[in-house]
Design brief:
10 strands; ten-stranded antiparallel β-sheet; alpha+beta; about 170 residues
Length: about 170
Amino acid sequence: MAKIKPRVIKTDTEYIYIPGESRERFLTPPFPSIKYLATNNIMMAGLSSWTDGYRIDRYKIYHHLLLYTRGGSGSLKINDGKTVKLKKGDLFIAPYDANYSYWTDSHWDAAWLHLSADTKWDALFGTTALVRKSAWGEEMARVMNGYIEESDRRRVDSGAALHSYVDLILLY
């Protein structure tokens, strides 16, 4: 069996190394007319299972980040440069314009959201990146998985269900 090539994304504000064995599932609308994510300031979101070697370095990025650790673990470097371990139940909250790096320790399962740098999120994000415990990581993952499955169905009535999933994402 051939080894899957890693993916590298490099821009002025970020460097991402994704080993070929890592898996990411993104929340996308089944039809361009369904814009519930965008109208609620969710730029991108997904469920990821990262393998050894996964790494992100971000420098003054233009979106907020919420990262729920669901399993495995990762390491994070923020603010004063100290390394923090992220374990199941941890939530990493990074406001736009923050500098941070995170990487896998071996395997890491996460649910994550990129939210637009909008005043709507000011109370949640503040001005500095931080880690805290969250009781909503598994609920968030279930809702995101439901959104992905409904989006894949592409039914005529998917729009109403997807709207409900976005409402739950915003709740969690």
